[in-house]
Amino acid sequence: MNRPYTAILIVPTGVGAAIGGYAGDALPVAKVIAQVCDRLITHPNVLNGASLYWNLPNAFYVEGYGLDKFASGCWGLRPVRNNKVGLLLDQAIEPELRLRHIQAADAVRATLGLTLTDYVITDAPLNVELRTTASGASWGTIGNPDSLLRAAEILIKKAGAEAIAVVARFPDDMDEEAVQKYRQGEGVDSLAGAEAVISHLLVRTFQIPCAHSPALLNEPPQPDLSPRSAAEELGYTFLPCVLVGLSRAPQFIIERGAIGSQQGDIWANEVDAAILPATACGSSALLSLSQIQCQIITVEENKTLIKVPPQPLGIKTIQVNSYLEAVGVLVAHKAGINPSALRPKLLPLQSVVRRQEAEDH
Question: Residue 16, class by beta-carbon neighbours within 10 Å (0-12 exposed, 13-18 middle, 19+ buried)?
């Protein structure tokens, strides 16, 4: 079979994932998986690492709402060489902090050669508020979503933006205990849920790639900082990885049909495998992928705060302990080898009728 082997890597945001719940700490997983598949589809929570990023030529940076629509078969993905990225800044960002973000954007233009439009500042503060569910997962609200949408429309219609990077001012009065736990590699990213709300709204409304970078005042250095959170301590802004990701994020194809279709367009029925934490199987994307011929691999040691295993949902998976084991399953699957053949014991074949009779009784 000459069709490219395509995998989806999902680590839900804001749920305290042991791997992928911090500052780009799932990026090593993505780098390894990208080596064993032809196309890797994943989302900003996996690839974003503040000032750290990595060029994975065969990886596709797809925002979470867009990933759900893709997995359902409603939208397709069209690879691009380069997007013109529009920068959207919250009016609530202080002048000095705003300047830091504009300079970061200029830096990626000069140093990485990315294409950006001129920026737009919202006509009112976005008023982001942070929330936490009973389980401890994070989410949030936007006080002025209309202002966000108006600014995005200006970037698209007047500046020709093909993707949008949003920088919203996030509250400084966050739960100090939760922040310290996160910085020590033990808690939940308090910002992630609200970030998802912002990007979901823009992708749903305008159907173009979008990702978010929070604007925050700098925290003082902390001696016992976790390596998984350390990427956020490297500068004044988390913007560089977002701009890099959006520069090559695939465009969404809203209607499937022969007219306008191009070689290289990707649709859900071309996905061979999906990898995700074993306790996070309730996402819209996974429920859609479980309905097609897609091998689902769940990783036990990537614990999350949510408790949604695949079995009660009737989702058949290969459960593995680690991402290292998941990579082995992907290699076998790509080669057309049943993973059970690699184990020392292989059960003999049985009569289908007798097996069914035994299960019925």
Answer: buried
